[in-house]
Amino acid sequence: MNDFLFILKWYFFGRLKVGRKSRKIKALADFNKALGFLQKGSLVIDAGANIGEFTKLFLDKGFKVHAFEPDTIALKELKKKCETSKELKLYEAAVGLKNERQKLYRYRKFDESNPYSTQGSSLLNYRSGKNKPFIEIKVIDFIGYLKQQTVSISLLKMDIEGIEIDILNKIIDEDLHKKIKFIFVETHERFSHSLGVETAKLKLRIKKLKIRNINLDWV
Q: Starting at the edge strand that comes first in sequence, how are the strands of the sheet with 94-96 ordered?
């Protein structure tokens, strides 16, 4: 299959969610298998920790966890679950490509009384509802952060609502994927045409470079 057909295939598969359910099931099985390989004390990064469901799972398994979450409502729930753990380093910020302040837009179905509804909050303003409600948040240069880590990173879980492609491309540019054992990412190509195209291009890049540790089908 040539490059154009590969991109076309994965563009439509992503946008129309073709085979998505079966890919997610396999990715979750791979995720659980990866967790089984890790030793207690392994460093795990939770980028887009939200209310802390996976952060708590990682902590319960005895891992050291660096969690990134910018949403103030989600952070309250995360702290209830996990803050007492000495193995958690919590960054109250989003991940990005530079240190800055940005707007975090509330999803159109956001309900302040329901912390779970913060899962759709995004730096992408077109994901927001009427009048585009937002809060201002801190963004951390994630590439710089990764370069500063002096210990091996066992697993990176990333769910950052449409910002993942630029960050993953930069991770590959800098060969930083080579210092991370497992990378599991939720992609959001269904959000827009441009994200569909860029996600398909990233899949092709990963295939051509024969990168085996980046899974783009997670949850």
A: 94-96, 134-141, 100-105
**Structure pTM?**
0.95
Mean pLDDT of 11-20: 94
Among candidate residues 83, 63, 99, the one with its CA nearest the CA of residue 181: 63
- Residue 52 burial (CB count, 10 A): 27
Q: Please compute Rg for the chain using Cα positions.
A: 17
Tell me, what CATH number does 29's domain have?
3.40.50
Element of type H or E holding 9: helix 3-16
d(CA 152, CA 18): 36
Q: What whole-number distance in Å separates Cα of residue 90 and Cα of residue 167?
A: 20
Q: How many domains does the chain have?
A: 1
